[in-house]
Specification:
alpha/beta; TIM Barrel; eight-stranded parallel beta barrel; two-stranded antiparallel sheet; 10 strands; globular
Length: 268
């Protein structure tokens, strides 16, 4: 059984970058994921700043899992599209320079109707971004879940391009009522990244909620078994929303990971 590697989204810790990287290493993670915004937006990060970020990650004996490029709208929306596409290209270039060579985006929902102009637009811009990724050596992963993952995978298959792939967030899929096992099988050929995040879907007496890893309705043993079945041996990234005690809760998440991945030992 090949060992998958554990990463952490640094923003979850609520610490400055240097302290967050050091904390992720102390907790036993092997890699980091960072949102390319604020001080880490491509236009804000100078060449010396990029060298410092690379050095800090390497000095903690960490690797990069991915960069996230936050978007205010999907790529099927024409308004402001050129600005969003420019940002994605810049983040892909940054990902190449820093090391992960992988960028995750929420590209928007694939329109159902074949003749929907938004579907045509989305296909065209993703094909262009795929060619850009092929040219510079960076991969673009789309977050799955707004539509059934099999629909997203079929859409990407029609576009082509080896640099286009899929990122899976089991909590996101669960809250959108998708079957996790089927989802992993549907995208296995394009699966480039997986989050570790848990949730409890809405019931009569409660609303949708993100919860600590292991406290939700994701069947983690089945989920990890399916990853092994489809041959996924890439990054698994811990991610959480706001927490009362981020360090304690992320430490607990690392421990839970070790339970569901018995061969992990130290996740590093």
């Amino acid at each position: 059984m090949a060992r998958r590697r554990l990463a952490m989204q640094l923003e979850c810790l609520g610490l400055p970058f240097r302290a967050a990287a050091a904390a992720a290493a102390r907790l036993g993670c092997a890699g980091v994921l960072l949102r390319a915004e604020g001080a880490f937006a491509p236009r804000q990060l100078s060449q010396s700043g990029r060298r410092e970020v690379r050095h800090r990650v390497l000095s903690e004996n960490l690797d990069w899992a991915a960069l996230v490029c936050p978007l205010d709208q999907g790529l099927e929306v024409e308004s402001g599209l050129e600005e969003r596409l420019s940002l994605i290209r810049e983040v892909m270039q940054l990902a190449f320079e820093l090391g992960p060579r992988t960028v995750i985006i929420a590209a928007g929902q694939v329109p159902e109707a074949e003749d929907d102009p938004r579907r045509t637009l989305l296909a065209a811009v993703l094909a262009d971004l795929g060619r850009w990724g092929d040219r510079i050596g960076a991969r673009l992963l789309l977050e799955a879940g707004l539509e059934p993952p099999r629909v997203l995978n079929a859409f990407l298959d029609r576009i082509g391009g080896g640099s286009l792939g899929v990122s899976i967030d089991p909590a996101h899929l669960l809250l959108h009522r998708h079957d996790l096992t089927a989802a992993l099988h549907d995208v296995h050929g394009r699966l480039g990244h997986v989050y570790l995040r848990d949730a409890r879907p809405q019931r009569l007496d409660r609303l949708d909620a993100e919860v600590p890893l292991g406290a939700g309705e994701v069947n983690w043993l089945a989920f990890m078994g399916t990853l092994e079945e489809i041959g996924y041996h890439g990054w698994l990234t811990l991610k959480r929303g706001p927490m009362a005690n981020p360090m304690a809760e992320m430490a607990a998440a690392v421990q839970f990971y070790r339970q569901i991945q018995p061969d992990a030992g130290s996740p590093r």
